Amino acid sequence: MKTMLLASPFRLFFLATALAALLPVTAWLLLYLGMPVLAATPQWHAHELLFGMVPAAATGFLLTAVAHWTNTQALHGRALLLLFLLWLAGRVLLAPAAAAPWLSGWPGTVALALDMLFLPALLVLVAVPVIRSGNRRQWPLLLLLLLWSLLHGYAHGFGSAWWPPQHSHASHITLDMLLLLIVLIGSRIIPMFTRNALQRAGGDAGAVRDPKALLAASMLLGAALVVTAIWPPAELLRISVAGALGVVLLARLGCWQGWRAWRDPLVWMLHVAMLWLALALLLRCLALFQLVPASMAYHALTVGGIGGMILAIITRVPLGHTGRAFVLPKGGVWIYLMLLLAVFSRVLAASPAMPQRACMLLAAIGWVGAFVLWLVLYWPIITRPRVDDRPG
Predict the structure, then answer these.
(1) Could you tell me which residues come within 8 angstroms of residue 217 by beta carbon, excluding any fewer than 6 positions away?
(2) Are residues 17 and 150 in the same domain?
(3) How confident is the model over 308-355, as pLDDT tens digits?
(4) 220, 289: one domain
(5) Looking at residue 13, what is its pLDDT?
């Protein structure tokens, strides 16, 4: 099992993703229920999701995909283990940070440095094969990974403190950067996977379109959204960018014809995650006019958009990269249904008209249930050799 977990990046880091998704939410739930746990602060909760769970998912996906895109061997063996230990060091050292006075002075500096090293390491591991291959199409990914690394440093005051005053600002910029990253990756895989699914099912794959004008608009507006998060302009201008991007994403979803693949959960979940991104952007506009609480938009993005896309990826990639057919394991659709329970409950919890405690409990149950079920169903897949006897 140890050997197989180190055979390909998706194996070890998707397992890390699921575990990292469970810990902050479980700790936060205990805190919400009046049972405080070590370091379970709002800053730690947000930080672990944005700089712990999501980087683990991105690492598993990008290092696996980049090897395929550049026709190189994916990171494996001891090098992969060292990268994982670097990621794990940040998680272990960060957990007691808020409650441990011994993290002042040089121990804290070392802990902060280790936590901040992971994303730059990922950037290098992605950049080297991309640059050597001359694959300029992947350069936007490198820019976003560089920005992510800088944002992590900014969130820690570039090594001066665990939770400096700008941590919240860094988190909000990171959310918009991740939204752009998902739009970039989704633009490449969702139309293609939808066409492939329709071809396998004998459907009309030609109905799936991806107009270049809408692609360009979504990239430009996504970049503009990140810029307006870094240097906030008038709120109305920022919301106008968010609203325009939400409308463009809805238009692209219409062109991608996801409803034609309704029989294939592996495909429709990708569309659902992108739909939550669009809805989160439109909810921001409504929040500006105080028509809905701002928390609705925030959790539509984090739980529905980011969480949904992560689950869509970590349920699909292990199948194809272990030689299996693109068919969910029996009962696997409940992973998605639990996530949908989580996002609907968490968004509704922000409404004064809803029973907040019940909604929060349902959201936590849905989120935890989704990732626990993934662990149960995908453990045999990620810990066993490929069914076609190929390496990886």
Answers:
(1) 244, 248
(2) yes
(3) 999 999 999 999 999 999 999 999 999 999 999 999 999 999 998 899
(4) yes
(5) 98
CA 292 and chain centroid, separation: 25
Report whether 366 contacts 345 (CB < 8 A): yes
Give the mean pLDDT of 135-143: 91
- 209 and 133 within one domain: no
- CA nearest 181: which of 85, 301, 339, 22? 301
- Which token pair is 63? 């290092």
- Sorted by sequence, the CB contacts under 8 Å of residue 362 that are 6+ apart come out as 341, 342, 345
* Last residue in a domain, options 164, 192, 225: 164
Q: Which two tokens stand for residue 25?
A: 């939410």
Give the domain range for residue 160. 1-164
111, 138, 164: which is the final residue of a domain?
164
CA 80, distance to chain mean position in Å, is 20
Between these two residues, 332 and 42, which has the higher pLDDT value?
A: 332
Q: Are residues 119 and 262 in the same domain?
A: no
Residue appearing with tokens 């739930």: 29
pTM of the model: 0.94
How many Cβ atoms from other residues are within 10 Å of residue 157's Cβ?
16
Q: Identify whether residues 73 and 27 lie together within a single domain.
A: yes
Q: Based on the domain organization, do 252 and 365 belong to the same domain?
A: yes
At 314 the pLDDT is: 98
How many domains are there within the chain? 2
Q: What is the per-residue DSSP string for 127-193?
A: HHHHHHHT-GGGHHHHHHHHHHHHHHHHHTGGGT-SS-TTHHHHHHHHHHHHHHHHHHHHHHHHHHH
Are residue 41 and residue 170 in the same domain, yes or no?
no
Q: From CA 297, how far away is CA 172, in angstroms rounded? A: 12
Coil vs helix vs strand at 255 = helix
